[in-house]
């Protein structure tokens, strides 16, 4: 992910348009740092990756119903 990622623009696209590509960019932008942070607690790359992925999935699921109104 290039360092010029425009986080507010990605958030806007997700909030207004449920833009899965923007969500994917945001995921890949934060994944490595969050995975390393999580690893400090679980000491397993596989478990840390799964936790980070699960959190992003849960966030998407929480956000999705609010856009149906």
Please explain how this structure is put together:
- This protein has a domain at 20-66.
- Helices cover 81% and strands 0% of the residues.
- It is built from 3 helices and no strands.
- The longest helix is centred in the middle third of the chain and has 23 residues, at 20-42.
- The model has no long low-confidence stretch (mean pLDDT 88).
What distinguishing features does this structure have?
single chain, 69 residues, mainly alpha
Secondary structure elements and their pairing?
Blueprint (H helix, E strand, L loop, with lengths): L6 H11 L2 H23 L2 H22 L3
What is this entry, summarized?
The protein has 69 residues and is an all-alpha fold. The protein is built from three helices and no strands. It has a domain at 20-66.
Sum up the overall morphology in one term. elongated
The description of the largest β-sheet is:
none
Q: Mean pLDDT, nearest integer? A: 88
How much helicity do the residues have? Answer: over 70%
Order of helices and strands: HHH
Low-confidence stretches: none
Distance between the termini: 33 Å
- Beta percentage is under 5%
Number of strands: 0
Based on secondary structure, the structural category is mainly alpha
Please give the count of helices.
3
CA radius of gyration is 13 Å
